[in-house]
Amino acid sequence: MAGIAMPVPDATVIARRDEIVTALKAIVPGEGVIADEIEMRPYETDGLTAYRQMPLIVVLPETVDQVARILRYCYDNAIKVVPRGAGTSLSGGALPLADGVLMSMMKFNRVLDIDFANRAAVVQPGVTNLGITRAVEHEGFYYAPDPSSQIACSIGGNIAENSGGVHCLKYGLTTNNVLGLEMVLMTGEVIRLGGKHLDSEGYDLLALMTGSEGLLGVVTEVTVRILQKPETARAVLIGFPSSEDGGRCVADIIGAGIIPGGMEMMDKPAIHAAEDFVNAGYPRDAEALLIVELDGPEAEVDYLLARVEEIARANNAGYLRTSTTEDERLAFWAGRKAAFPAVGRISPDYLCMDGTIPRRELPRVLARMRDLSERHGLRVANVFHAGDGNLHPLILYDANRPGELEAAEAFGADILRLCVEVGGVLTGEHGVGIEKRDLMTEMFSDEDLRQQQRVKCAFDEKQLLNPGKVFPVLHRCAELGRMHVHKGQLPFPDIPRF
């Protein structure tokens, strides 16, 4: 795997593979354990397909008891575990380990309860993001976070990465829409956090779990907030002669106190790719396209649309088109939501980056990104959640050309360094995984990282859950002051350092 170092596989665990397979089959009978190499092949990668690694074994539990017994067995036998949802992670968060059990949660795929009175739904982690909305839309409700992969991504994976989507500006990320969790710790203990009640006592461990990237526990049940659909929703397409004009318009809309339901931006390469793919009616001559959606009471929406159009014209907008029907509004969004697969038609490969910046820095960052494109000799198509500054540059390359993957990785690293330089962060909704792991020191001091690792030690003292992700250096918990060192002997000496 180019440029990515993972923990050295434990040869003693690999040598015990047949024994481990037998033990797991006793816990999950039938077809719940996959040990054949060909059958495991679909699990060797996730959405970050540049990196691949075959797992030791794949297991597909169906009950909470099975999850607990699997984790307890692995805990007792010092076997690593990588939790996996639908495998749509774009940061390598579900990349398997050669000496680890990959635990797929996709058989946990039922909607357990819908409580319209409390505006909540209880689902299993393998239910897709869009599946939640489908389950409640007959009563005029929906689940607000809507990542572009919502047709496929699982709610458990959304929690692991704190996913967002085009409507997260107004309605929040996953963390703002999850009310409760049932989860299993590495020791096999089952705990519950939060619920349908308004608040809970003690530390907010629910928020800690959201975005924890599978390092702290395995989610087996989720309670989410559902919302009533707004009375009116209309969207406007705004074309600009430059990305800088579009960036300034974004800042001015937010500065005017307007919080759209969604506000997305695309540059010319992305506009053309999406239009060729979907025929959404995008202006091909625009250098940048802004999609702004306003929702709420009809009178309010009409007033805010007029304000947005006024601000857009003040920022040199050359194209304005407002949706007049629901089908037209959905068509505007169809192009944006299909942007990632659309770009796949114009390049053999691409890396989808994920960084977040202050909105006021959009013009500066977009200009710097063009310079980086020339320096690295690779094209970039920009698609991003403009309202909250969450960038998704798509770096186009051809993996069959020697050196292009490495150049794309270097380009992506420079983009993320730029995000931090202007006061932003390394990620918005894709997580750190392996993709950004070695850039964590660009944003955090050594003590910052050690403190974060102490939290992991509190949940996973043997460092068996998804090791090799997020932290650039894996410390033993004893080194972080978490465990007692007796007569110079560290507990769990078999934990790898890398």
TrEMBL record:
Residues 51-229 form the FAD-binding PCMH-type domain. It comes from the Bacteria. Keywords: FAD, Flavoprotein, Oxidoreductase. The keyword Oxidoreductase applies. This is ATPase, E1-E2 type. One of its GO terms (molecular function) is FAD binding. Pfam families: FAD-oxidase_C, FAD_binding_4. The keyword Oxidoreductase applies. Its cofactor is FAD. InterPro entries: FAD-bd_oxidored_4_C (IPR004113), FAD-bd_PCMH (IPR016166), FAD-bd_PCMH-like_sf (IPR036318), FAD-bd_PCMH_sub2 (IPR016169), FAD-linked_Oxase-like_C (IPR016164), FAD-linked_OxidoTrans_Type4 (IPR051914), Oxid_FAD_bind_N (IPR006094), Vanillyl_alc_oxidase_C-sub2 (IPR016171). It comes from Polymorphum gilvum (strain LMG 25793 / CGMCC 1.9160 / SL003B-26A1).
